[in-house]
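Deliverable D5.2: sample structural annotation.
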Amino acid sequence: MKNIITAVLLLVTATVSAQSNQEVKVLELSKNIFKWDLTNQVDSLANVYDQKFMVVSGTGDIQRKDQFLTTLRSGNFIHNSIDIEENTATVENGTATVVGKGKFTVTISGNKMSLRLSYMEVFIKKAKGWKLLAMHFSIIPN
């Protein structure tokens, strides 16, 4: 009986690991994106953004890939610190979503501010790996 229970637990663990492996990879990519934001590695961001990438800010502004990359390169939008409090990933049929929240300290046109934000990232699986298709940020009220 003990051997059967052990076998079942190993099978369940292997199944969960197989399912969560892609989720772990997507969460790691999300973490790298935030790291690249902090270190202003715009070329790395450009490589992970899909051609159809769009971002919706907490104020409702919508920018396409080229517009957002231009904003990051301009120096008018700087990520000073990003502290992710929680996040989770879901992967299904070549699409992954990451939903999380955290504290983001940014400088916009010389004005430094700290915001608590919730966010959603949508990734799609391509031949060369995961690409970020869309991001949306919302301000969490105090």
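Annotation notes: The chain has one domain: 2-139. The domain at 2-139 is CATH 3.10.450.50 (Nuclear Transport Factor 2; Chain: A,).
The annotation will be released with the project's public dataset once the embargo ends.
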